[in-house]
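pinging the channel bc i need a second pair of eyes. not urgent but kinda urgent?? the chain im working w is below, pasted from the shared doc
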Amino acid sequence: MPHQLLRIVDANLNRSAEGLRVLEDIARFVLSDATLSQQLRTIRHSLAEVGESLGIILLEERDSEHDVGRENVIARPPSASASRPSVIASHPSVIASRRRGNLNRQSYPDLVSLVEANANRVEESLRVLEELAKLDELSSKLDAVKFEKVRFLLYSVEKEMVSRLTRQDKLKELTGLYVIVDRQVLGGRDELEVAREVIQGGAKVIQLRDKQRSMVELLPVAERLKELCLKAGILFIINDYLDLALAVDADGLHIGYGDLPVHVARRELPMTKIIGSSVTTVSRAIEVGDEGADYISVGSMFPTESKEGAIVVGLDMLKQVREAVSSPVVAIGGIDKSNIGEVIAAGADCVAVISAVLSKPDVKKATKGLVNEIRKAKRKCQG
């Protein structure tokens, strides 16, 4: 086999392995996703087998010292190709680095950019290997179909990783009080005024839940709440209604029992939007996580009058779910100032309430009280 071709194979196998290792470690240590980690590991091992099949012949042909392209490597993310414009090619840090001449020491503005760069590096290398495998001299040693399949698999993995990383900042807000604004509990009070008090009290998330009004009636309410939450810098979630969440550009959608399947909602929502799902069992928590839920809502923790027919699962189930999933866990159902510390101690990242705030004459004061209890409980757990 021509040694020039073997050098190309060697370079692209190495490039693929390096990029895959970066992606695998991000999937494992940043996203804590066993499925993605395993997929990337499998791809990396399959490519390693190609190198092993060619054996020492690749090493014999390697000549990095005399590689004419060595001094001309521009350390830009491979995504800056004509066919796939890079989302980071025009980032200020990229431009500044080029001006300084630090092209071989390129930094990335964020993890999303790092994932894109390494995924594209691997994808381009796979395409090179795929094309080389079609040559008569290499067709007996390389499998073009295999490289093509791996490349298309990596496209899906890249999308999932970027999707997950873009939602991480939102998920970081799921650490305090999550207030569900339900008209049935408001007693005629205006949603917007109540939401203002909730925000002033320190809530991190507001969810709009309304099973009675039409979409025409709900749309202006949701729009005003979205604007209020945006200005306050907190998350705004729509319960159940995918079309309403899309219409008002909500931060996310919460799906209850018997509602739209999580995997369908994930497919329809932009990748920047988070999805929460209510569960009562560990198996269901794992299932919705695999389908694309970003956070898991477990309940009811205690008996509650806010939701008719709610199943009380208790603190033990919360503990089991917390141990089984890596996603943020939101506890809900019958939680108030007297038991919120127990819920945090059992592993809840965030606590969702309705009556404990909305049924009180001073909503702001009630919200502050719960927020303070959460802080005390978390300090106690950490200390």
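so Strands lie at 177-182, 205-209, 235-239, 252-255, 274-279, 295-299, 329-332, 350-353. and The domain at 169-382 is CATH 3.20.20.70 (TIM Barrel). — does that match what u expected or am i reading it wrong
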